[in-house]
Specification:
This protein is of the alpha/beta class and about 375 residues long. It has helices at about 10-25, 50-55, 70-95, 105-115, 135-145, 155-160, 175-185, 190-195, 220-230, 250-260, 275-285, 295, 330-340, 340-345, 360-370, and strands at about 1-10, 30-35, 60-65, 95-100, 120-125, 150, 170, 205-210, 235-240, 265-270, 285-290, 305-310, 320-325.
């Protein structure tokens, strides 16, 4: 029995990891360990570690890294606290493999601690691009520290290979979020309204807006532009979800709270949880903001995404995604386009470039067959460009 330790730091990555964790738990060859960190442990972000426990998982270690401030210095200190915490946790747990998803700073800290401890790393959703966020650099750095790679689409596979990883260690499995869409029983409109204590309207939008972390100082202005565009809408009810625990997130959250406090037709949630979040996508007309979910999962609902700014620049996109600038008129125009008859007719035939599901099962199958230590002494695989 080989032990796979999964790290989750946010509500978003847990939603993606859930069915991989379930598969490890059910496997006759693998044993699950679980570390929860980051915003999971913060009441400000909904103490979402409780959702993990309510789903029947045992958290083996909790690593508290969040500071009250969202300044660049505080985030850097959080990375230090995370590295310190993961060093102790991995020394105690001694897993055979550390499984990480994505690109956040706490995941970077986990990868650093595991690499130095000689623990093999499996990395999920590598090779992607987000040009306006420091997640971009963390993601590619984690790729270079990892021994196994599970990517969501063919362009991302090529990018991981371009980073010098061995082809036999890279597997294209599709987007993990699509598994949850197919496996979860979503709430009806009435059930969702009751769960949220919020009445949906004639028109409904789901909005998630995060800081563009490489554009420091932009959060307040961009959020002001977004809210001005939303304020001009008529007969539209709005469900907001809070931003990630990144630099300048407090500015965004404070502005959202002030906006909803004056409107009975808008409500802000620290965390919806995956079932309510996907149910909200299904019941709303479109998703607005700059979350990766708008590109990866929303197309599978045949709903439009208004993608604001360049936070997700570099990711592959379905035809259901409308890009716009972080300016009120550009946002307003994009929302208007999302409601347009021609665009709505196009949605019924949209294909999600992140696949049709099954990523979790493919990952488990590969893990069960793989020698985790096979690629510990990596050689850089040069590409002949000439």
């Amino acid at each position: 029995m080989r032990t796979v330790c999964v790290v989750t730091g946010t509500r978003a990555d847990y939603g993606l990891l859930r069915w991989v964790m379930s598969g490890i738990k059910k496997s006759s060859d693998l044993q699950l360990q679980l570390i929860a960190t980051g915003s999971h442990l913060s009441p400000e972000y909904g103490s979402t570690y409780k959702d993990i426990e309510n789903d029947g998982f045992i958290i083996d270690k909790k690593i508290d890294i969040l500071l009250s401030s969202d300044s660049a210095a505080s985030i850097t200190k959080s990375i230090g606290l995370a590295t310190f915490g993961f060093a102790d946790a991995l020394s105690l747990l001694q897993p055979d493999l550390l499984l990480l998803l994505g690109d956040r700073y706490e995941i970077f800290a986990a990868a650093t601690a595991a690499m130095i401890a000689g623990i093999p790393i499996a990395h999920l959703h590598g090779g992607e691009a987000t040009e306006a966020a420091y997640d971009e650099a963390f993601r590619h750095s984690i790729t270079k520290m990892s021994n196994l790679h599970f990517v969501a689409a063919e362009p991302y596979l090529r990018r991981v290979l371009q980073l010098g990883e061995h082809p036999e260690s890279v597997f294209q499995v599709g987007g993990l979020g699509i598994d949850s869409i197919k496996r979860l029983k979503l709430l009806s409109r009435v059930e969702l309204e009751q769960s949220l204590s919020f009445k949906l309207g004639i028109k409904n939008l789901l909005v998630t807006f995060h800081p563009s972390t490489l554009n420091l100082g932009s959060a307040e202005k961009q959020t002001e532009e977004l809210l001005a565009a939303l304020d001009a809408l008529h007969d539209t009810h709005i469900i907001f979800t809070s931003p990630n625990a990144d630099t300048e997130n407090h500015k965004i959250k404070d502005m959202l709270q002030k906006f909803v406090s004056k409107r009975s037709t808008a409500k802000l949630f620290n965390s919806l949880g995956q079932c309510r979040y996907f149910s909200a996508i299904e019941q709303c007309d479109a998703v607005v903001g700059n979350s990766s979910s708008g590109l990866i999962e929303v197309p599978s609902f045949y709903k439009g995404t208004v993608n604001i700014g360049d936070r997700q620049k570099g990711r592959i996109k379905a035809d259901s995604v409308i890009d716009c600038e972080p300016e009120r008129e550009s946002i307003r125009s994009a929302i208007e386009s999302a409601y347009g008859d021609n665009f709505q007719k196009k949605l019924v035939s949209v294909k999600n470039p992140y696949g049709n599901g099954g990523a979790s099962d493919r990952i488990i199958e590969i893990l069960e067959q793989r020698d985790f230590r096979e690629n510990m002494k990596k050689t850089f695989q040069d590409i002949n460009f000439f």
